[in-house]
């Protein structure tokens, strides 16, 4: 991960969790719960969506926090890309990469509350046949209230919604 690029730009490369949704981008030891949410496991597998690749993100100069990120990753891994290519290593060009685009925003709601909202999209090949594709769209929200007089006590509510279009053999 780079640290010194100007204009709010950051680049990272290697194996990393994609930023689709809120939960997928965090490691299980950082979760506030024990089990992986069903939707994440159904879309990606037991280890979430991860892979070798590169990502560019930009922290915009807007008056509230807005970060835009785009990534290209290898779509091959049965443990982490169930919706995409799975175990095949048949990556022959740019059309065979997994692409992710995210927009993350934070709204300060006063001294005691904040709202984090994200939109994500992912697309890439799947393993049901040559040329078949999968598209995933997600939105996530996280609200936190911590009274200014006792910031160590807080209430947080988070939710994610997912939608997947998966092309299968003989799909027109």
Description:
It is built from 1 helix and 7 strands; from the N terminus they run E-H-E-E-E-E-E-E. The model has no long low-confidence stretch (mean pLDDT 85). The radius of gyration is 18 Å and the shape is globular. The protein has a 7-stranded antiparallel β-sheet, with no helix packed on it. With 172 residues, the protein is mainly β.
Question: Would you summarize the structure shown here?
Answer:
The chain is mostly beta strands and 172 residues long. The chain has 1 helix and 7 strands.
Number of continuous helical runs: 1
Q: Label the overall shape.
A: globular
Work out the radius of gyration.
18 Å
Can you give the helix content as a percent range?
under 10%
Please state how the strands of the largest beta sheet are arranged side by side.
1-2-3-4-5-6-7
Uncertain regions spanning at least 5 consecutive residues: none
Report the count of strand segments.
7
Sheet with the most strands, sense and barrel status: 7 strands, antiparallel
Ends distance = 41 Å
Alpha-beta classification: mainly beta
Mean of residue pLDDT values: 85
Order of helical and strand elements: EHEEEEEE
Tell me the strand percentage band: 35-45%
């Amino acid at each position: 991960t780079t640290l010194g690029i100007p204009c709010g730009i950051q680049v990272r490369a290697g194996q990393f969790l994609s930023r689709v949704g809120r939960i997928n981008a965090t490691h299980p030891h950082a979760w506030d719960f024990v089990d992986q949410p069903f939707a994440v496991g159904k879309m990606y597998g037991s280890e979430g969506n991860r892979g070798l690749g590169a990502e560019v993100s930009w922290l915009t100069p807007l008056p509230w926090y807005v970060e835009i990120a785009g990534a290209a990753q290898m779509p091959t891994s049965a443990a982490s890309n169930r919706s995409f290519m799975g175990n095949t290593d048949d990556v022959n060009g740019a059309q065979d990469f997994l692409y992710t685009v995210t927009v993350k925003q934070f709204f300060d709601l006063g001294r005691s509350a904040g709202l984090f909202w994200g939109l994500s999209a992912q697309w890439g090949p799947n393993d049901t046949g040559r040329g078949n594709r999968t598209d995933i769209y997600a939105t996530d929200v996280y609200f936190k209230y911590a009274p200014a007089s006792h910031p160590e006590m807080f209430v947080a509510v988070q939710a994610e919604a997912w939608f997947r279009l998966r092309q299968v053999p003989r799909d027109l």
